Amino acid sequence: MKLKNFVQLAFCSLIITLSFLSASAVSAQQPTPSDDEVNAIARQLFCPICQNTPLDVCPTQACHDWRELIRQMLAEGKTPDQIKQYFVDHYGARVLSEPPQTGLNWLVYIVPPVAFLLGVFLLFRAFRAWKRKPNEPVPEVAGGPASDEKDEYVSRLEEELRKRK
Amino acid sequence: MEQDGTNPTDKPRRGAPLWAQLLIWAGLLALLVVLGLGLFRAQHPILSVGSKVPDFALKLFDGYPYQGANQVSLAALRGKVVVVNFWASWCVTCADESPVMESAWNYYQPDGQVVFLVVDYTDVDAKALQFLTTYHLTYPNGPDLGTRITPIFNRNIAMPETYIVDQQGILRAEQIGPFQSLADIRSAIDPLINGK
User: Fold this and answer.
1) Optimal mutation site among A46, A49, A71, A161, interface B, most CBs of chain B within 10 A
2) Could you say which residues of chain B have pLDDT below 50?
3) pTM of the model
4) Which of A62, A116, B83, B145 is the most exposed place for a label (fewest CB within 10 A)?
């Protein structure tokens, strides 16, 4: 009876030990990054040899190689920033979907908001000018005061036009 | 008589103040200059034959040094003819051209008057090294880190391309597309070398 208990205990210990060993072996390996994880970084980069093609949708063999490189670097534990920096070091800042804020690149960040604010300012001025315009003339009554005002307005207008000739 | 509270003698309202108008025009002019320069560069992508080639430094792959050094600059090679060749592992015609380049390197290497600087354009390093091994290439070879060298020669590069720089650093010949034979390369290089 004691021998049977000892064998059962030894068997259970063996099973538990093997389970721990296999679990630690699995956790030592980095899981292979999924396509979604790779593409999350690839879409922040542009193909270095194609024109305006994001790396995640680029169909060429070269782009496939670069996506595999991203997968490999992720598996090695590199962060997205480290991977993007690697691409910049190797292929230049032109591969970034968002250009770095240096040199003439500042134009990309400055011109659109400045143009937008300028447009808002011009629209604001235009609306204010329209509001200041005199009201629509009331329908004329023959011989009434509106007719006199109109005559005076026309004469002033003609005078102004003569001055500007 | 005043009408609607306005004085008929008032001056008509002007637009934006002068400083703002000047600022807007200056901004537009600057934008036009930038666009114009970009257009000019787009229409003149290739360094023309007869031009002085700007200096550049090429970091070489491990195992592909030049005289034991793992980096070489064009300026350090004054007095020699320099063959600058652009290739990539993903370029099919580069594979076709590589035996021709290797045979040319073996032909010119012994007397040291001609140096090959072979530039790997936008490639994965592991693939590039695999390519060099597969095709048994031995000439000095390195990646165009940051894509800084390629735009010096051609901003719209089409692999492979070869540029031949004389002893004074002047571009003397260019080959867009692969060289087909050793004789082709020799016809471009030999006129620049004494005694060939």
Assistant:
1) A49
2) 1-6
3) 0.69
4) A116
